[in-house]
Structures are given as structure tokens and as C-alpha cells.
Write a structure and sequence with these properties.
two-stranded antiparallel sheet; 7-stranded mixed beta sheet; 2 helices; single chain; alpha+beta
């Protein structure tokens, strides 16, 4: 296959206040041009979040919440934090390592240093059911 590589869909579950409280990731084998791979990821992003592996927010991104004089670290991140990271997929680094560790050894596959990804926020609808909001994709 031409231009075969591991490509990844990444989702983050957030609320209206911009609090991210869960991550999801799913890897695929993509082939063809980058545009064809992106189109594939966008199509899959609309449904595969339902079966994608869930991941917690890494501890280093947890948010400190003040309640009176006491503070507590909460296992969530804020959407504004994504703009301050060296890489927009830094929030997903641990999840990507876990996903990659589950690849069969015989496949000799790995997630590239700069994977082609589609990152999609998931937000609750009026009934409280999470659904995708396609945001875009970039090779990181």
C-alpha cells in the first residue's frame, strides 16, 4: 500500500465551561495522500468515539480548584490549556503510548513522531448525550 502509516483520531470530552474531563483515542492504518487520510479520520470521528478507548486526564494537567481557603486538584483540564502546550496533542501523549503498546508485536507498527490526527471535541447535547463537534485536523 502506498503511504501506509498509523493515523489517529483523538477526542476530548468537554462541557460548556471548557472543562475537559475525559480523553479518547483510536488508531488506524491509513494509506493514500494526507488529504485522503484526513477525510477518512473525519468520517470515522463521527461514530468511532463510541468505541474508542477512554483515558483519564494526565495528572500534570489537573486543575487546582479553590473552595474557600482550601484547594483541591481535580482530574480535569481546561480547554485554554491546549493553547499553551508545545504540541496540541501533548494532552494525549500518555494515551498514545498506551494505544501504541497494544499494537500486535508482529505488526511492527508505531505511531509516528508527528502523527496525522483529527482532534474532535465531544460535548453533551440537550439530552446530556455526548456527540462530536468536528474541529479540524493537523499533522503534529
Amino acid at each position: 500500500m502506498e503511504n501506509r502509516e498509523v493515523i489517529v483520531n483523538l477526542w476530548y470530552v468537554r462541557d460548556e465551561e471548557g472543562i475537559i474531563y475525559s480523553l479518547r483515542a483510536r488508531a488506524y492504518i491509513g494509506s493514500g495522500s494526507d488529504a485522503e487520510k484526513v477525510e477518512f479520520l473525519q468520517r470515522r470521528a463521527l461514530l468511532d468515539y463510541l468505541v474508542a478507548d477512554p483515558f483519564e486526564i494526565p495528572q500534570r494537567f489537573h486543575v487546582k480548584i479553590m473552595e474557600g481557603r482550601a484547594s483541591q486538584m481535580m482530574p480535569v483540564a481546561h480547554i485554554s490549556m491546549l493553547q499553551t502546550l508545545d504540541s496540541p496533542i501533548a494532552l494525549f501523549e500518555e494515551a498514545l503510548k498506551i494505544v501504541e503498546s497494544r499494537f500486535p508485536a508482529q505488526s511492527q507498527l508505531e505511531i509516528p513522531q508527528d502523527p496525522l490526527v483529527c482532534t474532535t471535541p465531544l460535548m453533551p447535547n440537550e439530552q446530556g448525550v455526548i456527540e462530536p463537534r468536528i474541529s479540524g485536523q493537523v499533522r503534529y
